[in-house]
Amino acid sequence: MDLRNLRYFLTVAEQGGFTAAAEQLHIAQPAVSMAIRKLEQQLGLPLFDRQERRIRLTDEGEVLLRHARIILQAVNDAERDMRELHTLERGEVRVGIPSMLGSYYFPPILMAFRHHYPGVRLEVIEAGTRKLQQMIHQGEIDMGVIVCDTPPEDLETHCFLHAQMMAILPADHALAQARTITYDAFFTEELVLFKEGYFHREVIDRISREAGVTPRIGFEANLIPLIKQIVSHGYGISTLLEMVVADDPGLVAVPFSPAVWLELSLAWRKGHRLSRANQTFVDLVLQHAERDHNR
């Protein structure tokens, strides 16, 4: 069924005549009459009783009128939704971010996205990178942040941050003024670490295995303010990104020797076409990363 002919039919029915409908549609009256005849021929049913001076709908036309209103309203709604999505007046982004980056790297990005696209619903889920990969596979989130040392073959990845993992010490620690800290020296200390499943914990577990040592873990916590408090009071040392302690005079970030670098990427299912809202979010993250790199 031709939607244009259906629109003409609805207009004739609502205006009560072909001439009035033509004026409403801003087309010639014969074009309206021809469209209605084609619709009647296609359906094999009369839609208007033309015997009287003012045309009226037949019983068949009354039935079609009810459907025409529903169909055309649905089409109008779909067209409006597509326009809004195209201009990002609507949409949804579901992104998973580990707590460290969610607290110290992503806030300006999230606020900028919200400022530019207030109609887009932005949902941020906090979890470790392994959990986020699982959520991507299960369709619970559109994308997530992962460590891209060995990119999963079934995920599309775009690196946005090349960051150094640092040993975090209280300012009065004996090694606080050292230029670097060896793995052996680090593992002789009591440690305050994130729980398993978070990227920085996985790196420490890997390094300890390679070094053949068992870490002395005094505290396990995923709350960054708590970790910083524990370290600053001298109850252990930890590992964080330098950005986390940049404004904390009670803590010092010391590079490892050899250095530990992390490649952090946004990831989503390979072969899955991102929505316009999601692609715009990815573009914003990558633009932010490029600006930081060029500073």
Descriptive key words:
alpha/beta; Arc Repressor Mutant, subunit A; D-Maltodextrin-Binding Protein, domain 2; 3 domains; two-stranded antiparallel sheet; WH_DNA-bd_sf; LysR family transcriptional regulator; DNA-binding transcription factor activity
Short description:
Belongs to the LysR transcriptional regulatory family. With 295 residues, this protein is of the alpha/beta class.
> Number of helical runs?
11
Rg estimate, integer Å: 31 Å
Task: Say how many strands there are.
Answer: 11
Distance between the termini: 59 Å
Low-pLDDT ranges: none
Structure report:
Keywords: DNA-binding, Transcription, Transcription regulation. The protein is of the alpha/beta class. The chain folds into 3 domains: 3-86, Arc Repressor Mutant, subunit A; 92-158 and 264-294, 3-Layer(aba) Sandwich (D-Maltodextrin-Binding Protein, domain 2), CATH 3.40.190; 162-263, 3-Layer(aba) Sandwich (D-Maltodextrin-Binding Protein, domain 2). The protein is built from 11 helices and 11 strands. The protein has helices at residues 3-15, 18-25, 29-43, 59-86, 99-104, 107-116, 129-137, 183-187, 199-211, 224-232, 276-294; strands spanning 48-49, 56-57, 92-97, 121-126, 143-147, 155-170, 181-182, 190-193, 216-220, 238-241, 251-269. The strands form 3 sheets. Strands 3, 4, 5, 6, 7, 10 and 11 form a 7-stranded mixed β-sheet that branches. Strands 1-2 form a two-stranded antiparallel sheet. Helix 1 crosses helix 2 (18-25) and helix 1 packs across helix 4. It is rod-shaped.
